[in-house]
Design goal:
By secondary structure, the protein is an alpha/beta fold. The chain has helices at residues 12-24, 29-47, 62-76, 94-103, 136-148, 186-189, 193-197, 209-214, 258-269, 284-288, 302-308, 327-335, 346-349, 355-361, 375-381, 383-386, 393-404, 439-452, 457-475, 481-486, and strands at 53-58, 81-85, 108-109, 119-124, 152-155, 177-181, 199-203, 220-222, 246-250, 274-279, 295-298, 316-319, 340-343, 369-371, 407-410, 416-418, 424-426. It folds into two domains: 5-218, 3-Layer(aba) Sandwich (Rossmann fold); 225-486, UDP-N-acetylmuramoyl-L-alanine:D-glutamate ligase (3-Layer(aba) Sandwich). The longest helix has 19 residues, at 29-47.
Length: 491
């Protein structure tokens, strides 16, 4: 399935390469700018019909050029327009200079901007290409606009947001709406950029899809079903439980068994044909008292696990929820080195002192390990990567995936899923109320179930994260982890 251009996420560098390639192909670059500015004006007229004044803040580059075009279009419709410029407008070059000339109206230095009630701000200062902190003049205007609680319509990306990482560069506008062109940028989805961008509209200004696709090198997109659905085995009329996979989830000791049961039930609801809880002897009765459709198997130590693993139908495991961190977990993971494993929570923490021990176990062959770290766990497994301030969340997840030869689910409100081969997805469908105790245990079970049904590690991770988000949406505000389990559906 070919993804829509609007589903792609191009970095600022990739988009700059697209613009250059479009110009080299003979396309009228000013015509593209004119369509972009007109799209901004159209959005303004559609969503802010009651505005007293359009205040257009124009920067020293092509983003400013889009702003001048928007100002001209709005003035032609009778809107009261005021334009403020950053830097010397006489120094503008190329299309931006032509756009300013076509505006024909006056402009005032940005430092003199005094927003007032009834204004709608059009932010055309920097866009997605900014890579340094905004200067004092811009920061001051951002503060004035925020203080007046005025609506902001941003062009491309709110000024002050890093288009690659979504981070705030000193200060940034909080836009109600953002108009971008052809594709979104990572900064539209990564936090805090997602919150600063507001509602994002993607306008097609006429750059051919072949040019855009030719410049995509980062292999980054939003996590949507079309990214992984083709890797899942379709349901068949003639099937049985083993064809749908056998998922095994390791339980913790007595008194710490609930997390494993939630994970197991999530796996069953996500479509695994069989789910078994591997339980220590002391917890058998506790687990048995709560299980019906889920099976139970006694596993106390590494020897018992090795014996159980003689059944080659057992290929996929979840270890971590409520298991306890320590030597036992490390021994069990070593025994599972040739199987498919979702390592979560205590399983991850068990390797905090020597992450390389874990990576060595799964270093060979196609990825068969899925790691599900939150921010703290990620920092313990990959301290140097986590501490690299030059990397954004996507960069960090990719580096970690490559080092571990694993699919990484770097959890958070903007969860990133990464593969050792460089593919990465940003998830957007998880509601904020999904951040509750036990939610991660449910996620691990869903991922395990999808992998048990034959999906590769990366696709299983991506599908699991998406299905988890959908379950959270169905469960609604005030949910508990048990509520999420009840709303899990197979892919």
């Amino acid at each position: 399935m070919t993804e829509r251009l609007s589903d792609l996420l191009l970095s600022p560098a990739e988009m700059a390469a697209v613009d250059a390639a479009a110009a080299e192909s003979g396309m009228d670059s000013f015509g593209l700018m004119a369509r972009a500015g007109a799209a901004v004006a159209a959005s303004f007229l559609r969503f802010y019909p009651g505005a007293v004044r359009a205040v257009v803040l124009c920067g020293p580059g092509n983003n400013g050029g889009d702003g001048y075009i928007a100002a001209r279009c709005l003035e032609e419709t009778g809107i009261n327009v005021a334009v403020f410029h950053l830097g010397d407008p006489e120094a503008l070059k190329g299309d931006a200079a032509r756009a300013r000339l076509e505006w024909a109206g006056s402009s005032t230095p940005l430092a003199e901007c005094e927003p007032r009630q009834g204004d709608v701000i059009i932010d055309a200062i920097f866009g997605a290409g900014l890579s340094r902190d905004v200067g004092e003049v811009v920061a001051d205007v951002i503060g004035k606009v925020a203080g007046a609680s005025l609506p902001v319509l941003a062009i491309d990306l709110p000024s002050g947001i890093d288009g690659r990482t979504g981070s705030v560069l000193g200060a940034a506008f909080r836009a109600d709406r953002t108009v971008t062109f052809m594709t979104r940028k990572p900064g539209h989805l990564l936090l805090p950029g997602r919150e600063y961008s507001g509602n994002v509209e993607v306008f097609d200004i006429g750059i051919p899809a072949r040019i855009i696709r030719s410049k995509v090198v980062n292999r980054l997109a939003e996590n949507r079903p079309e990214r992984w659905i083709g890797s899942l085995l379709p349901p068949e009329q003639e099937t049985h439980k083993y064809k749908r996979g056998h998922l095994a989830v390791f339980s913790g000791e007595a008194g710490k068994t609930g997390a494993a049961r939630m994970s197991a039930m999530a796996g069953l609801k996500a479509g695994a044909g069989l789910v078994t809880i591997a339980s220590p002897t002391e917890a058998l009765a506790e687990n048995a008292g709560h299980l019906t459709a889920i099976m139970l198997h006694e596993v106390d130590d590494e020897a018992a696990l090795e014996l159980w693993l003689e059944d080659k139908r057992l290929q996929t495991f979840v270890l971590g929820p409520g298991f306890g961190a320590g030597e036992k977990a490390r021994r069990f993971v070593a025994a599972l080195r040739d199987r498919h494993l979702v390592l979560d929570a205590d399983g991850i923490s068990s390797f905090r002192e020597n992450p390389e021990e874990l990576f060595a176990l799964f270093a060979d062959g196609p990825p068969r390990l899925v790691l599900t770290p939150h921010e703290g766990e990620f920092g313990r497994l990959f301290p140097d990567i986590a501490g690299d301030e030059t990397k954004g969340k996507v960069d960090k997840a990719r580096a970690a995936a490559k080092r571990a030869n694993a699919a990484i689910i770097y959890k958070g409100a903007d969860t990133v899923i990464a593969s050792p081969d460089g593919r990465a997805l940003i998830n957007t469908n998880a509601p904020v109320w999904l951040a509750t105790a036990g939610s991660g245990d449910v996620l691990a079970g869903i991922v395990g179930a999808v992998m048990a049904q034959g999906a590769p590690a990366f696709e299983a991770a991506a599908a699991g994260v998406y299905l988890h988000g959908e379950a959270g949406m169905r469960a609604g505000k005030g949910l508990t982890a048990e509520d999420v389990v009840s709303q899990v559906l197979p892919p």
